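Hi Y.,

Following your request, here is the sequence exactly as I used it, all 173 residues.
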Amino acid sequence: ELISCLQSKLQRLWEERELVLSDVQECSKQGEELEAMVRAICKPNEFERYMMFIGDLEKVVSLLLCLSTRLARVQNAMRRIDGNTDAEEKQSLAERHKLLSRQREDAKDLKENLDRRERVVSGILAKYLTDQQLQDYRRFVQVKTSLLIEQKDLEEQIKFFEEQLEHLEQSIP
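Below is the corresponding structure, written out as tokens. Let me know if you'd prefer a different format.
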């Protein structure tokens, strides 16, 4: 029964992932259209700033999500520490936690820098775009970020349930 429930949950997550991937493709098309428009109306250096911002947006958001996920796993492992856990493992977890916490703080600084750059790019685009086009650009940035987060979250859930299913299947004689 439990295996069937996990398989059903996985099936729903896989279907949801397909929908998100479809949304990602649609967002990519919008991004390509926006890129072509920005290339046509902006100066080359302004277009380069725009392209660097869009490229870094995905990298920084992905980095933050990855570090947060890894940090959460280490924190979960630290909560499972008991009297039987050897000192070496405790030390290793504490060091990994410290390192990941520092890295996540650095990534947050990168995100703040990226937010400042977004305001600069927005200011550049405001000189060329209509109010509606500027709103479309801002919506694109928001949707792109949201889809990255949603996609990563789904991948983590799928991975978790696949591991649970595998452990369960191995435990049954």
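DSSP finds four helices and no strands in the chain.

Thanks again,
Q.
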